[in-house]
Amino acid sequence: MKKIISLLSSLLFLFGCSSQNSQSNTQAEEKTIQPGNKQTLVAYFSVTNHTERIANFAQEILDSDLFEIVPKQEYTSEDIDYNSDCRANREQNDDTARPEILNHIQDISQYDTIVLGYPIWWGQAPKIMYTFLESYDFSNKTILPFCTSGSSSMGSSATNLSKSAPNATWLEGKRFSASSSKEEVQNWLEEYINEEKEMKLEIDQKALNVTWEDNDSVKALKELLPLNINMHEYGGFEQTGSIGSSITRNDTQMDVAPGDIVLYNGNAISVFYSRSSWSYTRLGKIQASESELNSLLNKSSVTFTLKGE
Ligand SMILES: Cc1cc2nc3c(=O)[nH]c(=O)nc-3n(C[C@H](O)[C@H](O)[C@H](O)COP(=O)(O)O)c2cc1C
Fold it and tell me: Which of 190, 217, 249 is the last residue of a domain?
């Protein structure tokens, strides 16, 4: 028995090594997942619950929906006894096998990203995964595959699966073991999670609506949160105060209007209640009327507080 197991493990290992083809249709760097917004679905197939465990971790981390691909005909332990001429082995050896699925995703159009999990069966995804992919239109969706296995790598399994959903964008997947931790899943997903930090502004403890610029200076500022800046009035048009360190800047000569927030000299923030012009880097604009801005800022000093979410 031991011999069979070790023979199988080396076979499994070989499967993994021989199929290390890189996936042609993958984009590892794409940040695609918005946690908690329900546009991501974790869908998985699992017989002995290893893949299910990883899928559950992914669902918790992403706060996404979860869908278990349930076969119409359940896989019994005899069906997956790979040392015999079992159902799983027969299906894997049959290119046309498409085991039926019992359940259906009601409205796939609500998802833009699908995290797709499956066990490795003889180096490949179980044929039911092909049934799944051929049951829906995945055009313009992103698929992030993962698998669990005894020892094999993901190999060519996702590349082969991708042929059944060629209009989707397939990201590079990852293989987990039965004992992989939630932290490992988190570390993997973090590469793909689009965690744009929110930045909230209060002036003298009054919360304000701000439209922030999408630039490197705003990104750098977010890294410094929370920030409390003691500002003083200057020139009859602005409040200004030091950040306490220098951040990246891209200054240009500009006209500024009430509500504008700018970076001055890379190390100070100015916020305007009247018009001026100088060389700054724009950071954002407070959404408030000129009179509101005037009563908020036209005083000797204010406390300017930036907080993350
Ligand atoms: C039919 C069959 C074939 C398998 N082939 C491989 C293989 O090629 N390489 C490997 O490392 N593990 C292989 N395994 C082990 C499974 O990939 C592993 O136990 C997986 O984590 C099971 O996932 P599940 O519990 O979600 O069903 C195979 C298992 C079965 C049932």
Answer: 190
